[in-house]
Amino acid sequence: xxxxxxxxxxxxxxxxxxxxxxxxLVAFLTAALQFRALLGERGLLPVPRFVARVPFRAAPSLxxxxxxxxxxxxxxxxxxxxxxxxxxxxxSLVPLWAALLLWLVPWLLYLSIVNVGQTWYSFGWESLLxxxxxxxxxxxxxxxxxxxxxxxxxxxxxxxxxxxxxxxKMRGDECWRKLTCLDHHHETQPMPGPLSWFFHxxxxxxxxxxxxxxxxxxxxxxxxxxxxxxxxxxxxxxMIVTQLWLVLSGNFAWLNWITIVLALSAVxxxxxxPDRPGAPLWYEVTVxxxxxxxxxxxxxxxANMISRRxxxxxxxxxxxxxxxxxxxxxxxxxxxxxxxxxxxxDTAREDSEWREYEFKxxxxxxxRWPRQFAPYHLRLDWLMWFAALSPSxxxxxxxxxxxxxxxxxxxxxxxxxxSPFPPDEPPRFVRARLFRYRYTTWRELRETGACWERTFxxxxxxxxxxxxxxxxx
Length: 473
Fold this sequence. Notes:
Layout: H1 10-39, H2 47-53, H3 62-65, H4 69-87, H5 96-114, H6 124-136, H7 148-171, H8 174-177, H9 185-188, H10 196-200, H11 204-219, H12 231-249, H13 255-264, H14 281-297, H15 299-305, E1 314-315, E2 323-324, E3 335-343, E4 355-356, E5 358-359, H16 379-389, H17 398-406, H18 410-413, E6 416-418, E7 429-439, H19 442-448, E8 452-464
Helix pairs in contact: 1-4, 1-13, 4-5, 5-6, 6-7, 7-11, 12-13
């Protein structure tokens, strides 16, 4: 079927597949390096406890069938290995059927992680990676020309990502309609980057232009993805530029990068279309069946997207095949941070020597400048931002976090930038306090060298120690 393929998108397919493999690699590396403290057998939210109460049909995962920390580590590192092989072009060296299976492996492994990941994996970009990854399975390899149906599916995902995000903003916080949200967002976003302070201090009229441009990119430009070339390429390029602007302004894990990867699939790169043999009948039938399934499953996400009660980042099936997306439907005006401290004193007093734990990404020491971590995802740092919004967000894991700090648990301490206590001398007490953070002004930065100014708000959790611990002799 001549209409089934689009040979002019061969370069687009190649660039898209290699970039997607790179995102997969970061995602699996994040899981491999952080799972033990977050989800392991002694983690903050252990997988064995989760699978004991959640049936397989509700959260299909390899780890529903068997779990051990070693098995999980094997799955995560296997995902890294397969992703690296795909990044190097292994799928081009094997038959078509083997290439499809090779791309199916990281999707299955990451699905298994997300479905037992609980609150640590509740972010929209987890489902987005799975949805994109499943559609990418059917792109094929060098044995066949690029199937136009799959290209349509990828544009359909990109459309829902951008248009859904635009709608949630217009329906949500009034500051998006007044074009004033960026007066606050760069200061209150979950994890600022090294340039966020400067973005915050841009002139307010420029902030208005930024918001207006964002509305155009998310509410108008997505429709151009389904127009002929070169208009579709121009629309995709505009989305890529917008996402790169967001990459510079903050740390949003791989949300921006997976969106850029999606947009690359809509770009028609100038190149001579190579001659490819016709696609096998079994491949054409499989792709069409999968496309029909995904279009049919799109009903609920689309119904949610056009609803006045639109919700963000929800999956409508346990395989995360088709989902709904959105971000920052509301913007915080004030930044709060939970600061955790410990002391070696036998009695917890206000005048005890309290030492502060330092996190890798979230604000702490006012003089420490934010670093760039994205696309790597610091999951604990992100959840600490939610914990500062309300203790209810952290009720299931925060107490266990403090317990692990009291134990000087090595896996937990690896999630932090620095512990103020030596490995052989854990704190006797830990406590949590809530501070209000704001960016310093240009004058304050010059005078103090601090990018943040913080003010104590209240006690978040009083001093606590391990149950049954005795005083030192």
